[in-house]
Amino acid sequence: MSLPESHLAQEAIAALVDGELASGPAARAARHLGGCLECRMAVQAQREAKDALHAAADVAVPGDLLSRLCAIPFTADVPGGGGLGSLTAGPGQLTVTDSSGRWTVTLDDPPQTPSAPHQARWLRRGVAGTLAGLGIGVAVLAVNLPDGGATTPGVPPASVAGPSSPDERTEVVPPVVRTLTGGAGTGAVAPGATP
Fold this sequence. Notes:
alpha+beta; 5 helices
C-alpha cells in the first residue's frame, strides 16, 4: 500500500516565503522541499512574485474594485452541499432551492410595529420610581450620617480611627509602620521603632 503524494498548500508556501510560518511547520516544509521539485518551484514562483510586488512603485487598482468586492455576497451563487440544494444570495434576500421547492428569506429590516401609548406610561412610571428610590436613599443617608459639627480653626478634626494621645502620631513609610511618642525635644526612640 502506498500513500498518495502530498504537496504544500498554497497558504503554507506564502507563509513560508513571508517568514510567518512557525518553527515546527517551517522545519517540516523544509524537509518536504528537500525531496519535492514541484513544491520548490512553487516556493520560487512565490518568492519571485513577492520580489516583483516589492519592486513595483505603485500598483494601479481599478476604481470600482471595492464596490465589486462588496457585491460578491449578493451576486455569487453558493453551491449547495449534500441534498440541501443551492443557496443564492441576491440584494436583500437569500434563496434556497432544492428538489422539493424554493424558499426566499428577506434580509431587510422587519417592519416596525407602532408602539402602544400605554408603553410610554410604563416607562415614565419606571423612571419616576427609580428617581424616587434614589431620593429616599439619599435622604436616609443624610439623616443617618454623624453630625460633622463646626470645626474650630487651629484644632484638627477628630480622628476617624478612634481616640489617640495628643503626642502620638503614626507615620506610614512603606513597608514599615512606626509609632513615635514624645514631645518635640526628646531624642529618645520608642521601643521597636527604627531610629
